[in-house]
Design goal:
It is a single chain. The relative contact order is 0.09. This protein is of the alpha/beta class. The chain starts with a helix and ends with a strand. A ten-stranded mixed sheet has the order 14-15-16-13-12-17-18-33-27-26, sandwiched between helices. Strands 9-8-7-10-11-19 form a six-stranded mixed sheet, with helices on both faces. Strands 30-29-28-31-32 form a five-stranded parallel sheet, with helices on both faces. The longest helix is centred in the N-terminal third of the chain and has 29 residues. It has 28 helices and 33 strands. The structure holds NADPH dihydro-nicotinamide-adenine-dinucleotide phosphate. The site of NADPH dihydro-nicotinamide-adenine-dinucleotide phosphate has 26 residues, from helix 9, helix 10 and helix 13.
C-alpha cells in the first residue's frame, strides 16, 4: 500500500505541533521571573516558586509568593482606584472592557499556547474554547458596563472585590470574575492558583496595554495563604471564589459576620443521563466532552454516567471502543484529545481515588494504549460495578475518570442524579423532548444540558445548587452578585429592644384556669412543644398577655421534616401560589380588628396600621408570584438557554423582635410566593400575632407543611436551624452576634443565608421591600440548554 492509502486505512494522525516559542519568548522578556501586578506596576519579585509545565515537569518561570503585605498594598491600590473607576460613566467602563476583549483576541494564540504550557490542557481546547470564551466574556460585559444603571436601578458596586480562582481554567475563570466585577464598577485583587499564574500575569500586561487606570485590576500570585490573606483583609467588600467545596466552606466560615459579599462556585459530581431512546453515537461524543474535556478537571464534568439498563451493554461496549481511539499526549499537539493533568499531586490524588474504587469492588477499565512518560498523563478511565455509596460515586475525582451506573425508570434516574451533596450541572440525552423536559425541572442543579454538554456562554448564568455553592457567573444574574442596593450603606445599628420586667417571676402566675398556651404549627397541625414548657408573653407594662410553647431541637426537626415533605409547593403553578397569598390577605383583612388588638396588647402600639401593611405586603407578593420569572438567552451556539427561576427549597426564617405581625409576614410572603416551604420562628418578644395566624393559614388553602411555626427563644432556635442540613436557606433578623453565628453554623451544607447583622432594616418600607430584594434571595436560577435553530 502506498502511504496515503495506508493513512486512510488506519486513520492515524501524524504529529501537528504548535510552537511553544512565542510563549517562551514572552517569559524570557520577563527574565522568567515575575513580581505581582499592583497599582498598575510590577513589584520586584519576592520569595518565588516555580510554575512548571505538567507535560514534562520543566520549570517555565518563577512566580512570587504573595504575602499579607502584598495583599494589603493591592487592596489599598484597589480602594483608591475604586473612587474614580466607579465614578466613570458606564460608557467609559464599557470602552475599557471592549479594549481588553480586543487585545485578548489579538493575542489569542499567545494566550492559548501559554495556557496549554502552564496547565497541560490540549491546545485544541485552549485555542478553540478557553480563549474565545474569555474574549466573549469581556465583549459581553462591556455591554453590561454601559447599561448597568438602566438595568440595575438603585444598585451600586460593592467596592473592592477579592477574587480567588482555581487552576483548571486559569484565564477563563479570571475572565468570569474580572469582567462582571469591573462592569459593575468594582475594582479587584485577584489571586490565580499556584499551579497556573502565567496567563493571569500576561493578562495584567493586557490591562496595561488597554490603558486601564492603575489599581483597577491587581494580580497577586501565591499559595493558599495568599488567598487566606485576601479573605481576611478587612477592607475587602466582597469575596468571589471558585475551587473546592472544602476551601469554599472555610471561606464561608472566615467571612461570617464580616458583612462581606460572598459568591462561591464549588465542586460537582454531575450526572450524565442517557435514556434508551437517545441518539447513542451523539451521546457518546457528548460524553467524551463531558468527562475528557480538560482531562476531566472540570467542576461541571459529567462524571457520573447514568444509563438506562436496556441499552447499558451496547452503550458501554461502544464507549470502550471510543475510549480506545482517544489520543493522550503532548498538549501542544493539535491532534491530541487528552493532555496532561495540572500537577503530580493531582495525578496521585486521582490514582488514589481509582485505587480506592477498585478496593471497594469496582471494575476499572482503561484502554490498551501507551501514554507518554515523564509528565502528568493518565489514561481515560471507566469505572463500573459500583453502588451509590461507593467513594468514586460520591467524591469529586477531578480527573479523566468516568463512573457508570444504570437505572430502569425515569424516576430512578432522577433519584440517582439527585443523590449527591452537589448540584452544579446535569446532562440529559433523549430523542423524546417531552421526556427530557420532564426530567430537567426535577434535577437539582444550576445548569442542565439537553442533548449537548459543557455549553458555556457569557450571557448564560453558571453556578450551583446545594454544596456546589451560591451566586452565578455570567448573564444578568452574574452581574447581580457584584452589586448591592445603594441604601444598604446608610443602615444604622438597630436600637436594642427595651427589656420589660415581668410583673411576676413565678411561672405559675397569671395563667387562667383554661390552657391558653398557643401551640406550635407543624405540618398543618397544632402541636404541643416537645419540651413541655411554655414561655410567657408580656405586654408593654410587664403584664402577662399570653403564653406560647418553648420550642426546642425536636420541634425544629419536626418542622423541617414537615417542610421537606411540602417541597411540592415549588411545583404548584405560580398562579396557584398567587391565589393562596391573595386569599391569605383577604382572610387577614377580615380579622383586622382582632389582629390589631393583639398587636396593641403586646406592644402598646395601635395595631391597625401594621395589619394593613401586612395585608398590603401579602397582596404585593401575590402579585409577584407569577411575574418574577426567567428569561430565554440566545447564546452564539445552536441552542437556547431557558433561565428558570426556581425556589431554593426549605427556607428558615427568624423574624425580627419588633413588628410582631409585619415582621413575619414581610419575610414569609416573598418566600412563599417563590415556592419555598418555610419554618418560621416569630418574634420571641411578641409571638402571639403569628400564633393567631394558624387559623388564617388553615382557611386560606395553604397546604399543610408549607408554613411551619415554632415559637421559643430565637437565638437558640436559630442555631438549630442554621446547623440543620434539611434547611436550604436561612434569613435571620437579629443582632450582629446572632448573625455571625448563623453564617458560621450554616457551612455544613452551605445554605444560603441573609442576616440583618443588627442593622435597622425597616421592613415597613414598601419601596425597599415590596420589590425583588427578598425575591432574589428566595430563588436560584437554573439554566436549561436546549438545541434550537439551525
Ligand atoms: P482549592 O480549592 O484548594 O484551590 C482553589 C484556589 O483557592 C487556589 O487559588 C488556591 O490557592 C486557593 N486557596 C487554597 N486554600 C485557600 C484558603 N484557605 N483560603 C483562600 N484561598 C485558598 O483547590 P485545589 O487546587 O487544592 O484542588 C483540590 C481539589 O479541589 C481538586 O482535586 C478538585 O477536586 C477540587 N477543585 C475543584 C474546582 C472546581 O471548580 N470545582 C477547581 C479546583 C479544584 P493554591 O492554588 O495556592 O492552593
Amino acid at each position: 500500500m502506498n502511504k496515503i492509502a495506508q493513512i486512510f486505512e488506519t486513520l492515524e494522525y501524524g504529529p501537528a505541533p504548535e510552537s511553544a516559542q512565542p510563549a517562551l519568548d514572552w517569559l524570557k522578556a520577563h527574565d522568567g521571573i515575575f513580581g505581582h501586578f499592583i497599582n498598575g506596576a510590577w513589584t520586584r519579585p519576592g520569595k518565588t516558586f516555580s510554575s512548571d509545565n505538567p507535560a514534562n515537569g520543566q520549570s517555565l518561570a518563577q512566580v512570587s509568593e504573595g504575602t499579607a503585605e502584598d495583599v494589603d498594598k493591592a487592596v489599598k491600590a484597589a480602594r483608591i482606584a475604586f473612587k474614580s473607576w466607579s465614578a466613570l460613566s458606564g460608557y467609559e467602563r464599557a470602552k475599557y472592557l471592549y479594549a481588553i476583549a480586543r487585545l485578548v483576541q489579538k493575542h489569542s494564540r499567545l494566550f492559548a499556547v501559554l495556557e496549554s504550557l502552564d496547565n497541560g490542557k490540549p491546545i485544541r481546547e485552549s485555542r478553540d474554547i478557553d480563549i474565545p470564551l474569555v474574549a466573549r466574556h469581556f465583549y459581553h460585559h462591556a455591554g453590561w458596563g454601559q447599561h448597568r444603571d438602566r438595568e440595575f436601578p438603585g444598585q451600586v458596586p460593592y467596592g473592592v472585590c477579592g477574587q480567588i480562582i482555581p487552576w483548571n481554567f486559569p484565564l477563563l475563570m479570571l475572565a468570569w470574575k474580572i469582567a462582571p466585577a469591573l462592569a459593575a464598577g468594582n475594582t479587584v485583587v485577584l489571586k490565580p492558583a499556584e499551579f497556573t499564574s502565567l496567563t493571569a500575569l500576561l493578562f495584567a500586561e493586557i490591562c496595561e496595554k488597554a490603558g486601564l487606570p492603575k489599581g483597577v485590576v491587581n494580580i497577586v500570585t501565591g499559595f493558599g495563604d495568599t488567598g487566606q490573606a485576601i479573605v481576611a483583609h478587612p477592607d475587602i467588600d466582597k469575596i468571589a471564589f471558585t475551587g473546592s467545596t472544602e476551601v469554599g466552606k472555610a471561606i464561608r466560615a472566615a467571612t461570617a459576620g464580616t458583612g462581606k459579599g460572598l459568591s462561591l462556585e464549588l465542586g460537582g459530581k454531575s450526572p450524565y443521563i442517557v435514556f434508551e431512546d437517545a441518539d447513542i453515537d451523539s451521546a457518546i461524543e457528548g460524553l467524551v466532552d463531558a468527562i475528557w474535556f480538560n482531562q476531566g478537571q472540570v467542576c461541571c464534568a459529567g462524571s457520573r454516567l447514568l444509563i438506562q439498563e436496556s441499552i447499558e451493554d451496547r452503550f458501554i461496549a461502544k464507549l470502550k471502543k471510543r475510549m480506545a481511539s482517544l489520543r493522550v499526549g503532548d498538549p501542544l499537539d493539535k491532534a491530541i484529545d487528552i493532555g496532561a493533568l495540572v500537577a503530580p499531586v493531582q495525578v496521585e490524588r486521582v490514582r488514589d481515588l481509582v485505587k480506592k474504587g477498585a478496593a471497594e469492588g469496582a471494575q476499572v477499565y482503561e484502554p490498551d494504549f501507551d501514554i507518554p512518560g515523564g509528565g502528568c498523563f493518565l489514561k481515560p478511565t471507566l469505572i463500573t460495578n459500583v453502588s451509590p455509596s461507593h467513594t468514586v460515586v460520591t467524591e469529586e475525582i477531578f480527573g479523566p475518570v468516568l463512573v457508570a451506573m444504570s437505572f430502569r425508570t425515569p424516576e430512578e434516574a432522577v433519584a440517582l442524579a439527585n443523590n449527591t451533596r452537589y448540584g452544579l450541572a446535569a446532562t440529559i440525552w433523549s430523542e423524546n423532548i417531552n421526556l427530557a423536559l420532564d426530567i430537567a425541572p426535577k434535577i437539582k442543579a444550576g445548569v442542565v444540558w439537553i442533548n449537548g454538554t459543557n455549553n458555556f456562554d457569557a450571557a448564560v448564568g453558571f453556578g450551583g445548587y446545594k454544596e456546589s455553592g451560591f451566586g452565578r457567573e455570567g448573564g444578568k444574574e452574574g452581574m447581580g452578585v457584584y452589586m448591592k442596593p445603594a441604601w444598604e450603606k446608610d443602615l444604622k445599628p438597630a436600637a436594642a429592644a427595651k427589656a420589660v420586667p415581668a410583673k411576676s417571676a413565678n411561672p405559675l402566675d397569671g395563667g387562667d384556669s383554661i390552657d391558653q398556651t398557643a401551640k406550635m404549627y407543624i405540618g398543618g397541625k397544632q402541636a404541643r412543644p416537645d419540651s413541655g414548657y411554655s414561655r410567657p408573653v408580656h405586654g408593654p407594662g410587664g403584664n402577662l398577655v399570653g403564653e406560647v410553647g418553648d420550642g426546642n431541637r425536636k420541634d425544629i426537626r419536626n418542622a423541617v421534616e414537615a417542610a421537606r415533605a411540602a417541597l411540592g409547593w415549588g411545583n404548584a403553578s405560580a398562579h396557584n401560589r398567587s391565589q393562596v397569598l391573595y386569599f391569605l390577605a383577604e382572610n387577614l383583612q377580615y380579622r383586622r380588628a382582632e389582629f390589631a388588638a393583639r398587636i396593641r396588647e403586646q406592644t402598646g402600639e395601635k395595631g391597625e396600621a401594621e395589619v394593613d401593611a401586612a395585608v398590603e405586603r401579602l397582596f404585593a407578593f401575590a402579585g409577584w408570584a407569577d411575574k418574577y420569572d426567567g428569561a430565554v438567552h440566545n447564546p452564539p451556539l445552536r441552542a437556547i438557554a431557558a433561565a428558570m427561576v426556581e425556589p431554593i427549597g426549605v427556607l428558615a426564617i427568624v423574624a425580627p423582635a419588633a413588628r410582631p405581625l409585619l415582621g413575619s409576614v414581610a419575610l414569609l410572603a416573598p418566600a412563599l410566593a417563590m415556592g419555598n416551604p418555610v419554618v418560621l420562628v416569630p418574634s420571641d418578644k411578641a409571638p402571639l400575632s403569628v400564633t393567631d395566624l394558624y387559623q388564617v393559614l388553615e382557611t386560606s388553602d395553604v397546604p399543610s407543611g408549607v408554613v411551619n411555626i415554632v415559637t421559643g427563644d430565637s437565638a437558640v432556635l436559630a442555631r438549630t436551624l442554621a446547623e440543620h442540613d434539611g434547611v436550604d436557606a436561612m434569613w435571620y433578623f437579629g443582632d450582629a452576634a446572632g448573625s455571625t453565628m448563623v453564617e458560621k453554623a450554616s457551612t455544613g451544607n452551605l445554605k444560603q443565608t441573609w442576616t440583618s447583622r443588627g442593622l435597622n432594616y425597616d421592613l415597613a418600607d414598601t419601596g425597599k421591600f415590596e420589590g425583588d430584594y427578598f425575591l432574589r434571595r428566595a430563588t436560584q436560577v437554573k439554566n436549561v440548554w436546549v438545541p434550537y435553530g439551525a
